[in-house]
Write a structure and sequence with these properties.
mainly alpha, 2 domains, tRNA dimethylallyltransferase 9-like, transferase, single chain, 140 residues, transferase activity
Length: 140
């Protein structure tokens, strides 16, 4: 709660669908820079603070491993499943980095509240970082 509780609108099916269409277009065009700029324009200026290589190296490596497509309920044969992605990862050449990308769509407000509560507990809970720091100070 450093800056107060977040004042963000709840997501809706229409907004989620529109975002998925925009992302699908960017993915078809392999336009990673435009995707980063979309995040920046959406209100996250820190996304552009890292050099492009910080985004490009893992993204390009992941993109080359398999084709992630947005699922269309009428054409499920055209999508990769989680197990397909695992198999492709195992079959692909070794990369400098080992990672998996997951894109989760949920209500932002619920996510932000969860993060706030976890941070508060980390700072003020019984086994918090502050109580550990106090213990370290007391022990000298």
């Amino acid at each position: 709660f450093i800056y107060g509780k977040p004042d963000v609108p709840k997501s809706s099916v229409e907004i989620t669908s529109q975002v998925c269409m925009e992302l699908a277009e960017l993915q078809r065009n392999d336009d990673w820079e435009a995707a980063v700029q979309l995040v920046v324009k959406a209100g996250d200026p820190k996304s552009s603070g890292s050099p492009p290589s910080a985004f490009r190296v893992p993204y390009d490596s992941f993109r080359k491993q398999g084709d992630c497509r947005i699922a269309d309920s009428s054409d499920s044969a055209d999508t990769n499943t989680y197990n397909d992605a695992i198999k492709e990862t195992a079959d692909s050449a070794k990369l400098d980095y080992e990672f998996m990308c997951f894109f989760l769509s949920s209500d932002r407000l619920d996510l932000y509240r969860s993060i706030d509560y976890r941070c508060e507990d980390m700072l003020l809970g019984g086994d918090s970082i502050l109580s550990e720091a106090q213990w370290l100070l007391d022990t000298g």
